[in-house]
Backbone:
């Protein structure tokens, strides 16, 4: 996990995003326990309350679940939830900028589709 202590994104949000990334790349598999609040806060010198706030964001979204006396675990289906979220973000945020730039450069829709298809080969 990497954190930007000087950036504009609050640390608790960065904690949540880093955990999401670890779930998506398979570092934290579904059904498995993630590092405790204390482990994360000690390893990265972040206030435990900040780490807890980030983890609670993911609990509220159904990505993580707390098991009393056992710890915090990745829920079944968490990867799918995160993939859908990332796909929606891509379509809403990245794609319009991409299309706008392609238009500005004079790339036609047909050419763009061909380039995308070629990229998938």
Residues:
């Amino acid at each position: 996990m990497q954190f930007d202590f000087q950036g504009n994104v609050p640390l608790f949000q960065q904690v949540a995003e880093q955990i999401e990334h670890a779930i998506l790349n398979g570092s934290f598999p579904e059904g498995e326990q993630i590092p405790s609040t204390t482990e994360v806060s000690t390893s990265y010198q972040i206030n435990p309350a900040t780490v807890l706030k980030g983890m609670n964001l993911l609990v509220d979204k159904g990505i993580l679940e707390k098991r009393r006396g056992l710890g915090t675990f990745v829920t079944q289906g968490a990867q799918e939830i995160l993939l859908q979220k990332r796909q929606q973000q891509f379509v809403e945020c990245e794609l319009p900028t991409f299309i706008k730039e392609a238009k500005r450069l004079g790339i036609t829709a047909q050419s763009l589709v061909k380039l995308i298809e070629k990229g998938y080969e």
Remarks:
- Strands lie at 64-67, 71-74.
- The mean pLDDT is 94.
- Residues 20 and 82 are 7 Å apart (CA to CA).
- The two ends are 32 Å apart (CA to CA).
